[in-house]
Hints:
Order of helices and strands: HHHHHHHHEHHEEHEEEEEEEEEEEEEE
Shape: globular
Number of strands: 17
Strand order of the largest sheet: 3-6-4-5
Structural class: alpha+beta
Distance between the termini: 37 Å
Radius of gyration: 20 Å
Strand content: 5-15%
Amino acid sequence: MASADGLLLARWAGWTLAIALGACSPSMPSADVASDRGATDTGAADVRAMDSTSAEDASEDSARETDATADVATMDVSSSDVGDAGSSADATTADAMRADTSVGDGGVALGSLTTEIASAVCGALFRCCPTSQDLATYFAPYVASTRLESVRSRLPPNVAMASFDEAACRAVLRDAFAIAPWADWVSAATAGRVTYDGAAAERCASALRATSCGKPAWDALLDPRCFGFSPGTGDVQRSFFRRTQTTGACSFLRDGTGGVFFGTCDPTQSFCCYESGGRCTIVPGAMLPGAMGMCRPAAAVGESCTIAPALRVCRTGLECDGSSRCVAPRTGMLASGAMCWNASDGLLGDCPASEFCNLFGSGRCEARRAQGVACSGGDQCLSDFCQCPSTGCTMSAEGGVIEVGRCAAWGLCNGR
């Protein structure tokens, strides 16, 4: 669970992207501000301090059972952020990624990872999600990523659909995946700072190849535990890379804000400290990739947490409350119609399955909406799908609610 200011920062970035794309995304799997819950939950002032350095990664934040701003918030928004280093540095990592390096027992060799992921993803897309709407929606976060500018023109909707077949999809994704989001993971695995599990990667690929079309295919494509472009949170970690470092030198991972804060350190115990002026600070984006830090103890329940002037983050799974102390997330089930969010405490718990938390309106759990009712994302709809009009999505304030589309029958990945 992210703090209130963290959620609002992420949603501001997400809405900017949603309007730029003129598209309203369906419901996506929960992916917090980081690959680790609690990384940026350090209070209002501290989150504001992040704005100039990590807006892109913060845009990957999404709330548990909240209104569907989460649907666009998982996208990699273009900005001056911790995720952007020079193209030459990315190319160097990409070359290492293509090397014939095998780490782990059985399954997909590390040097073949991008090829195997591209094959599994494109196979699922063209088996289940081949329409122009499907492909444009899936590739939206790739197109928005500043790190993938070199391949942007080869991705839908920027490429003629007649020429974008499964082979072209595999070729461009191999090039994209060698840059983001896997480059830093592979580099760290090659250096022995994280452990790669080829068998787990093969299980992810097999599951994607076997998934049923419709919403199951969409959810599998975006699954942050496997090949989803945006990382997960808490226990929803990348399943084929494991971080076990608690001491020693660490490197930073450009895969969500948590990847930068925790880096290659074990997020249940430590964070990656970039020391400047005798204290841990956020690593400057211009120093990535290649910057190194040291694993330092992350804060446990009841301990202090802060971003500025010195960085100390909570262990993954915890959040930093308004008093700058690490606390367990509020995950209790709320009553129907109960208050679920306020500015001082953030999220107050989980709404019932038939309801969503209306962050931009009442701050209460509200009934998910029927087809034809205005929505700002799939989590607000019974169908999990919020569709923009043909003229594109727009924002308007009506009773404090941002409206960009209308609930409709599930409309993705129902192809052959």
